[in-house]
């Protein structure tokens, strides 16, 4: 059986070659090794979720009834998820350009990878995989406040696209798009992917990059080498990051209501031009990211 292993899947390669971004989950293609990799990832992270994850995430895991022993069917996940917040996981063949990604969130759809990391690379994979997307992201989508925050990100992207397309000069459109995309990507990274939240007198993880990483989840909250600061919007949108290292800097929100308000503030900053020239550096903004904002049908 060919399997659905990240970077090694003929099914995904064919879909990408044909330009298919949104696909089905061909469940029959998962190999025994794929199921074993999933089971190993899921079983070993359980104690760390109980120790370091925020309570809403743990509630979400229980509500989704995720299969611990084999790769879940996305259809089954959605049957539990959609009645709770209207969100659903939407299978994709790989990278989704920035505006399309945020627009999916606005429509309560979460682009979800269907491949599983190689069983020999359980600790780290630079590419997204299904464990990161389904086990790391989706449990938080069962919480109404968090789900509404994701929708707000999509509304922020819509406001940005409207603002950018109203500009008459193409060069200015491209420059503005690159800066706004960079700002939104950084804010998403330091919140949705690698955010910490106050839980009583303690800190807990809610970012999916932490919650899907056996090693970094503990490191993020225990290591004295990590800088942890209350989030400030101007810091987050101007702070570059590297994807292939444990994060040395993490930001803390007080609550998911606080996070929701910050995304609203970010949208206002977009409209007011306050993120039109953020600091250079990572993440890289591709031509397809820029074009997705310039050509978005609004």
Q: Which regions contain 5 or more consecutive residues with pLDDT less than 50? A: none
Helix content: 40-55%
Class by SSE composition? alpha/beta
Return the average pLDDT rounded to an integer: 95
The end-to-end span amounts to 43 Å
Report the β-strand fraction as a percent range: 5-15%
Task: Give the radius of gyration.
Answer: 19 Å
- Count of extended strands: 6
Q: What count of helical segments does DSSP give?
A: 13
Which strands sit side by side, in order, in the main sheet? 4-3-6-5
Could you name the CATH homologous superfamily?
Answer: Aromatic amino acid hydroxylase
CATH class, named Mainly Alpha
Q: What is the second-level CATH architecture?
A: Orthogonal Bundle
Question: What is the string of SSEs from the N terminus onward?
Answer: HHHHEHEHHHEEHHEHEHH
CATH topology name, in short, is Phenylalanine Hydroxylase
Shape call: globular
Largest sheet: 4 strands, mixed
Domain count, please report it: 1
